[in-house]
Amino acid sequence: MNEIALPGALRITRFLFKRSLVCVLSAALCILALVHPLAAAAQGETTLSVSPAEASVILTNTRTISLYLAGGVNLNAFDVAVRYDPSLVDYESYAFGGYFSNLAQVYLRDDPGYFRLAATQLATPGVSGDGVVLNLVFRGTSRGISPIIIEMADFAVYGDGPLVHATAEHGTLRVHDNPAALPKYTVSGLFSLQGRADTSGIPVSLGYGQTHWLGPYAGVSVNLSSANLTLTDVVEDSYTLTTAMPRCLNISAEMGKILAVSASHNAIAPLTLRCGNAVWQEEAGGEWAANNVIDVADISLIGLQYMQSGPDLDGDVNFSGRVDIFDLALAAGNYDLTAEIVYAGWTP
Predict the structure, then answer these.
(1) Smallest Cα–Cα separation from 216: which of 183, 247, 259, 245?
(2) What is the CA radius of gyration of the chain?
(3) Is the dihedral of CA 263, 265, 266, 267 positive or negative?
């Protein structure tokens, strides 16, 4: 086909038209680039999680950690990255899970503390639903808790869909000694509450052992006048002791109350928790945190619930089933006290 010669003015006009069209297409691509992340965000139900969320492994042994995908829609490829503590665990190998099939590795990076893998299905339709994307094998090299952080969780939709950025749910891997090779003891103690004769229902915990990283051990007191808390098969070690009794001042981990368990020391010193802490927890950043001070907020809540009855009233600080003058007196008598002050002289 012969090209028709155009006058100079028309050639300039056609040139400007083409240039304008290129600009419009470029702008459209920029807009699409911005839209794609929004489209991916719309699929916010897609999550990639470490499973199990809290795993453990005996020192020098291996443990498999899975990356579990939930809420996938028509997916065909993935690019995931995981960070961990190389001073505690070593990455050894990976294997594809059953979520995708006919996979080909596209990219692999294996540095100390960092693992990244990209892979795609070949001549296979997209996959929807839930399942294991990847299995990672780690070896415990030193005692402690390594975070397992999903740093990247990108998935490609089959065909020409947007990139899906899955919500990451991280985990941990705890490396500990073999409990079968260590001595164990039964630990007991007497716990009670100020203003209440019944000594039952007080939650007490021992955290991870500082040497062997075994535990935690937890129990709830029963209504006895002697040793009313018993923890069995506690490995010989030193543990941080905590309590978690509503409406009372509690022993927190930050207070550093250490119980050293051994053949000659397996009894916890008696402890009476001071009560009157009606506002015993507060919401901060979407999470509940302990409030370990008795102040005007506690007095105010007791006043707000005064003369009410029921099992779930935090103003009932003596657990009588009714908010009354006795609760007010208990809180007023402990006014301005903190757990740090009250339990400063107590050693487990």
Answers:
(1) 259
(2) 30
(3) positive
Q: Is residue 19 part of a domain?
A: no
Q: In the predicted model, what is the mean pLDDT of residues 63-78?
A: 97
Mean per-residue pLDDT, 158-171:
93
52: preceding bond cis by omega (within 30 degrees): yes
In a domain, 133, yes or no: yes
Residues 103 and 185 in one domain: no
Which SS3 state, helix, strand or coil, does residue 258 take?
strand
Does residue 175 contact residue 57 with C-beta atoms inside 8 Å?
yes
Range of the domain at 111: 47-176
- Shared domain for 169 and 199, answered yes or no, is no
Helices 296-304 + 325-333 axis angle, to 10: 180
Dihedral of the alpha carbons of 85, 89, 94, 96, in degrees to the nearest 10 = -70
The CATH number of whichever domain residue 224 belongs to comes to 2.60.40.4130
pTM recorded for the entire structure: 0.81
CB-based contacts of 157, cutoff 8 Å, min separation 6: 73, 74, 75, 76, 126, 163, 164
For residue 157, report the phi and psi dihedrals to the nearest 5 degrees.
-80, 145
The pairing of beta strand 167-169 with beta strand 47-51: parallel
Neighbours of 264 (CB within 10 A): 8
Which pLDDT score is estimated for 283? 84
Q: Are 336 and 194 part of one and the same domain?
A: yes
And the tokens for 200?
A: 């039952």
User: 160 and 226: one domain?
Assistant: no
